[in-house]
Design brief:
Elements (H helix, E strand, L loop, with lengths): L5 H21 L9 H9 L5 H13 L9 H17 L6 H7 L15 H9 L4 H13 L3 H5 L6 E2 L6 E4 L10 E4 L2 H14 L28 H18 L18 H14 L1 H8 L15
């Protein structure tokens, strides 16, 4: 799983960990040594029905006495992880039988909280952190995913173009496809201010060289600094901003805020769709688009 996505590997690992705990509880009396490896043998020998096993696993995840309640999406992911694990070990699972005999909780979709320019202005006015203000403006005009923006290097910005061009690296793009996007003049202004502050001359210290390979939103140049390592600090600062402007409400029945950093990407998508059309918005955000819709860069 890690060949294509480290995050998928982590999620699947959590799902298999839950499954092992379920096996320890469910078969503690009759088969105390049942593990992820030995369960495959039991299923292959028809000792255990795979559909009943998976349905019982869903009931275990939904148990009301669990210390930590799982969301519906998490349960679907963990069951998918176990199903993938069993199929990898040649356990035949029919999709039709699985759908009839394994009852997963119904997903209830709720519209995401919308952002508008006045909401973003409130956040920016309450933000005194130069880095965070520049980062939010990049998200609000470039429509990047959170880590895509954190992965930007100094050399990924081209201030010579109008508007400023930003290169998204394929290594940190969800679709693994590199692309160029554009940011607003206001975002450019605050980015330049952040860079001037970051590389300012400090008393009794040598002048810091602006390394092209350095991450744009990192405070220090370290070989070990990775975009995901910056996420926690940015996440915490953003939640402080939400609390200040009283926009830190949680989703009903969930431990997640209605407004997140991903809300800025939805804002960009909505604005571009209403002003320039659906096709251009899909291209700008790096989504799959119609093969008939192409865009040539203007000459000069």
């Amino acid at each position: 799983m890690s060949r294509n996505s480290i995050k998928s590997k982590r999620i699947y690992g959590i799902g298999l960990s839950h499954f092992q705990t379920f096996l320890d509880c469910r078969f503690k009396a009759n088969s105390p040594n049942l593990t992820l490896e030995t369960i495959v043998e039991s299923i292959a020998q028809n000792g255990i029905n795979v559909y009943s096993l998976l349905d019982n696993f869903v009931s275990y995840l939904l148990a009301p006495d669990r210390p930590n309640k799982l969301s519906t999406n998490s349960i679907w992911l963990y069951v998918a992880a176990v199903r993938s694990f069993l199929q990898y070990h040649d356990v035949d699972i029919s999709s039709a039988k699985f759908k009839r005999r394994v009852r997963l909780p119904r997903k209830h979709r709720e519209d995401e909280e919308a952002l508008d320019t006045s909401d973003i202005r409130r956040m920016l006015l309450s933000c005194n952190n130069r880095r965070m203000k520049a980062y939010l403006l990049v998200l609000a005009s470039g429509g990047m995913r959170t880590v895509e923006a954190l992965a930007l290097r100094n050399k990924d910005l081209d201030f010579s173009t109008f508007p400023t061009t930003v290169h998204i690296r394929k290594e940190y793009s969800k679709t693994r496809v590199a692309r160029d996007v554009y940011i607003s003049d206001e975002a450019t202004k605050f980015l330049k201010e952040w860079l001037d502050f970051k590389y300012r001359k400090k008393p009794k210290l040598p002048v810091r060289i602006r390394n092209p390979e350095e991450l744009l939103f990192s405070h220090k140049y370290l070989e070990s600094v990775v975009p995901t390592g910056l996420y926690l600090k940015v996440f915490q600062e953003f939640h402080r901003i939400l609390a200040t402007v009283e926009m830190d409400q949680l989703k009903e029945g969930m431990n997640r805020h209605k407004i997140t950093l991903h809300s800025f990407r939805r804002f960009v998508k909505s604005v571009i769709s209403s002003q320039a059309g659906q096709d251009y918005s899909e291209w700008f955000l790096g989504h799959a688009k119609s093969p008939y819709w192409t865009l040539k860069e203007p000459a000069g």
